[in-house]
Structure formats: structure tokens, C-alpha cells
Amino acid sequence: MTDQRDQEDLKTPFTFKLMVVAVAVYLGWRLVEAIVWIFRQVF
Fold it and tell me: Sign of torsion, CA 28 31 36 37?
């Protein structure tokens, strides 16, 4: 059985969550830029 201490050891660090959010925002913005670039090339 797991106790409270084992649960605390498995928590994800805040900085890791922040890094994941930052990467998602960055990749999302790059996707928008790519769509705009493709749109300008086609039209």
C-alpha cells in the first residue's frame, strides 16, 4: 500500500509543469506562423 509520503514523492515539480506549458505555447505560436506563411505562399 502507498502512504502519504509515497504520494508526495510522485508529485510533478512546478517547474516541469511550467516548462510543458511554455513549450505548448511556443509550438502553438509556431503552428500559427506556419499557417500564415503557407496562406501567404498560396494566395
Answer: positive
The mean pLDDT values, 10 residues at a time, for the chain of 43 residues are 64 96 98 98 95
Kindly state the cell numbers that stand for 22: 511554455
**Residue that is written with C-alpha cell 516541469 in the block:** 16
- CA 17, 23, 29, 35: dihedral to nearest 10 degrees? -120
Domain count, the chain: 1
The model's pTM: 0.69
Q: Which residue segment(s) compose the domain that 29 sits in? A: 18-43
